[in-house]
Amino acid sequence: MQRDIAREWWFLRRDRLTVATLIAAVLLATLTIAIGLADVASQKDTIAALEASTIADLENTLADQHDAGSAAYYGFRLVVSPPSALAFAASGVRDELPWKHRIRSLALEGQIYENDAGNPELVQLGRIDYAFLISVLAPLLVILMLHDVVDAERRQNRYDLLAVTAGSVRPLLRWRVLLRAVALATALLVPFVAAAVWSRAATADIVAIVAATLLYVLAWASVALWVARRLPSATATAATLLGGWTVFVLVIPLTAGALAERTIDVPQGGELLLQQREIVNRAWDLPQNATMEAFDATHPEWAGQTITYEGFNWMWYYAFQQVGDQSVEDISTALRVGVRERDAFMGRAALLSPPLLIDRLFARLADTDIAAFQRYDRCVRDFHASLRKAHYPMLYGVEPFDVDKLLALDKTRTCS
Amino acid sequence: MTGSLRIVAEEWRYWSRSRLAVSATGLLLVVILAAVISTVSRVQSESDARRSMQIAAEETFLAQPDRHPHRMVHYGHYVFRTPAPLAVIDPGVDPLTGTVMFLEGHRQNTATFPAAYTAPQVAGFEYLTPAFTYQVLVPLVLVVVGFSIVSRERELQTDVQLTVQGLGSRALWTGKSLALLSLSVLLLLPLAAGALFALSRGASAFAALVLIGGYFAYLAFWSFAIVGISARTKSSAMALLVSCIAWIAIAVVMPRLVSDLTGALSPVTGKIESDFALIEAMRDVGDGHNAADPAFDQLRANLFAEYGVDKAEDLPVNLRGIVAEAAETELTKVLNEFSDARMQEEQAQAALARRGALLSPMLALRNASMQTVGSDLGNYHRFLHEAEAARFEFVQGLNRAHISELSYIDDINRNKDEASGIRARISADNWRVLQTFDFQPAPAGERIRTASVGLLLLLLWCAAAAVFAYTGTRFSEGRFHAA
Q1: Which residues of B137-162 are buried (b: 16+ CB within 10 A; e: fewer)?
Q2: Which of A184, A321, B127, B422 has the fewest CB neighbours in a 10 Å radius?
Q3: How many contacts (CB atoms, under 8 Å) link A and B?
Q4: What is the pLDDT, as a whole number, of residue B483?
Q5: What pLDDT is attached to residue B482?
């Protein structure tokens, strides 16, 4: 075995295509990881700047307010989901879905869909992150490196000779492919492991990514060898493998995506907004009791409280904001359930497409998948609920207006 | 010429016998058709849904009962962005940009609910669109079908026969290129069908032609590049290797690299971040709800002087409405200043990314394609501008009604009791200040002018590849003579 490895190592070092592929792999891995780390650093800077501005703005704004109603109206707070330790490796949905919000006690459904997203023309081009390198480009590197592995022997007429002298070429080629695949995986993984350790990612997550990448590269390499043995030429091998790559990387995921969209309905966001506005605005024309009753139904702790309504009352105002949210709860929930079901559908489709599986695994470990987004969404909702509830005693007049108390509430919330 | 045509016919015969060529092209055609059909149906149903919600929003607004005009300012209105007709070919940034925006007084909201909000997450490549298929997949199939187009002749030494038959390098270049070009034309048929559909939905025929021309130029680039590489490499195996690497670099890696590097080199301040500066700037603008705000002292004094009165009650117009109107104008100036700055920043960043067209013809095509269709950043900004214009128009229309239709006395007493509240309402006829909103992309001529830079670069890439192929076939022939 040691002799096999030593011999193949000798061959590997002299194979120009393999060496070139390995160099390309190290360069690409380093590049994608450097880009990912820079991006994560800039997200962290953004969060730090936003936190500082939010705190200064809130202190500034609340100082001018004379009642709890205005304080709640003008008092914006920040909710963010900071990038995880592995976010540098998989940007996931963070380009497309929000991970930072300015929130106040008004109806949440009018605020939570705001997205401070990046330039759509850049987002549309996509990202070259580490997950993309592994799931999409690594198989191409395998094909590049191995499509000629059998044919090269045949061309040099060594194939038959080897078949005679070594008894069988099978173990020999197996060693060759194994060694090259491991070398490729190592070239791809070393920069990753270094960066992951540096960002203090969990060991279990690092191990999972290393194992998945190794398996994935080995799987493509075995398929490459299997195809190369059966086809007469390196070009036929390469073309066939490229066809397989196209099917697994593009055709299956994209078809599954289109199917998920078609078969799993989600409510139109516009409908939600239109309805929510209707309910919120109708309150102005309804007797205030109608609003307060609807509010009390979900807030029994306030059921006994009365408010003095003289054309306007802040508590009534926030009550109908809340009732507006309640009125679209069904649509809002259906929206999240629909997204979750579409994601589950893609999860099943991923069983047919290893690249999709790898991509989803990376995004899950990096907390940049749909599930992580929905956890963040939940966290924003919880924060909003705690915020408005903290204002109610002052709005009802049970407690006196106290700026310090409002300033003592979380000015920023980190959801992780 | 007949010699070249013979080479074309010969190539087609070769392809029809090659299992690889037939299966690759067949699979591709299926994918293209799926892309065209699914994109047409998605864009169309999205477009219909948004249009009907737009109508519903307008009807709801107009159906509102008599009210205090400022209530309607906050009741607000929704505008929906409908995609351009040619977006069935290239949706561009449409799925990533908000589709609906809430318009109200004193605020510029952002557009929310991009399709991406609920889209399933597909690894790496987001949507199976005709644009994506032609930009990424078709070149790969051209590579797989054509990599050996010249090298094969050399390997089989059939190039000797060609030369003996008096077919020189020019005929070889023309014939081999024409063969791949004719395959490209065939592959473009589904794109043309999609464009025809867009025409039936009101797309400009000129824009559709330019679009198809752009995609043809891009495929021509690949056809020439493949012939050139095949002619210059020692073996078919090497030709495949080199063309594949070119494809990976041009169509897969470069676009993403350009996106990431642009983001890192020229970051744009996020909206929440720049909003803090906006908040600062807004502190100096008076509160339009409060006619006693010192910010309006001058306005009030001028008005009193003009009408020769000394208190608001004696004015023939409603001071609160005048203050609201003036404040809205003032505040909108500040809001626009910030939103314009933001859009300019985004445009500058996008312009930097578009320079990637110098590194990859795919980026040249992609820019030209989105711009010709009207699904680029510029057209999204056009929507934002139009939505803002619509916002300002209906808010000020309501403020004008506030000035002339509602007396100041009734207005300030509106919260006294129910009867006063009713007196402080104006007729629902006034809600007709709302105009119908129907977003259309920029006119075709303007779109094509914007796209001309990308188109020009694409033609340059194409010309360079043609030269590369021509000199390559001569080189190939020279090598034969030398041998």
Answers
A1: bbbbbbbbbbbbbbbbbbeeeebeeb
A2: B422
A3: 263
A4: 41
A5: 45
At A309 the pLDDT is: 77
Which among B111, B38, B196 has a CA at the least distance from the CA of B379?
Answer: B111
- Going by the DSSP 8-state scheme, the letter that residue B134 receives in this structure is I
Which residue in chain A is spatially nearest to B21 when comparing CA positions? A239
Give the pairing of strands A412-414 and A77-80.
parallel
Backbone angles phi, psi at A282, to 5 degrees: -60, -30
Q: What is the mean pLDDT of residues A61-66?
A: 92
Task: For B367-379, write each residue's pLDDT tens digit.
Answer: 999 999 999 999 9
List the structure tokens of B280. Answer: 């600062």
pTM metric for this prediction: 0.93
- Residue A93 · residue A371 · CB < 8 Å: no
Q: Which of A163-172, A322-331, A377-386 has the lowest mean pLDDT?
A: A163-172
Tokens read off for A110: 């009018």
Please choose, from the candidates B281, B145, B143, the residue with its C-alpha nearest in 3D space to the C-alpha of residue B221. B143
How many Cβ atoms from other residues are within 10 Å of residue A289's Cβ? 12
| Angle of the A138-146 helix axis to the A169-198 helix axis, nearest 10 | 150
pLDDT digits (tens, 9 = 90+) for A281-293: 888 888 888 899 9
Residue B110 is classified by DSSP as: P
Q: Minimal Cα–Cα distance from A409 to chain B, Å?
A: 21
Decide if B147 and A235 are in contact by the 8 Å CB cutoff. Answer: yes
Confidence category of residue A375, pLDDT binned at 50, 70, 90 = very high
Alpha-carbon span B160 to B179, nearest angstrom: 20
User: For residue B252, how many other CB atoms are within 10 A of its CB?
Assistant: 23
> How far is the C-alpha of B434 from the C-alpha of B391, rounded, in Å?
9
Whether residue B129 contacts residue B39, with contact meaning beta carbons closer than 8 Å, is answered with yes
The residue among A107, A219, A222 whose CA lies nearest residue A176 is: A222
Q: Which helix (H) or strand (E) holds A72?
A: helix A68-74
Position B84 pLDDT exceeds 50: yes
The ipTM is 0.91
Q: Please name the amino acid found at residue B171.
A: A
CA distances from B264 to A36, A96, A118, A313, B97 (A): 10, 17, 12, 49, 21
The stretches of A92-233 forming alpha helices (DSSP H) are 120-125, 130-132, 138-146, 151-155, 158-165, 169-198, 203-230
**Residue B410: helix, strand or coil by DSSP?**
helix
Nearest C-alpha neighbor of B170 from the set B406, B402, B7, B376: B7
Are B140 and A242 inside 8 Å of each other by CB? yes
Are residues B66 and B428 in contact, defined by beta-carbon separation less than 8 angstroms? Answer: yes
Could you tell me the CA-to-CA distances from A294 to A297, A313, A389, B116, B414 in Å, in that order?
5, 16, 16, 34, 26
**Average pLDDT for A152-176:** 71
Kindly report the nearest CA distance between residue B307 and chain A, in angstroms: 32
Residues 150 through 209 of chain B touching chain A, CB cutoff 8 Å:
none
Over residues B255-265, mean pLDDT = 94
Residue B113 touches partner A, C-beta closer than 8 Å = yes
Are B31 and A266 within 8 A, CB to CB?
Answer: no
Number of H helices, E strands in chain A: 19, 3
In chain A the first and final C-alpha atoms are separated, in Å, by: 48
With 50 as the cut, is the pLDDT of residue A13 above it? yes
Q: Which residues pair with B246 in a beta bridge?
A: none
**Beta carbons within 8 Å of A57's beta carbon, 6+ residues apart:** A76, B276, B279
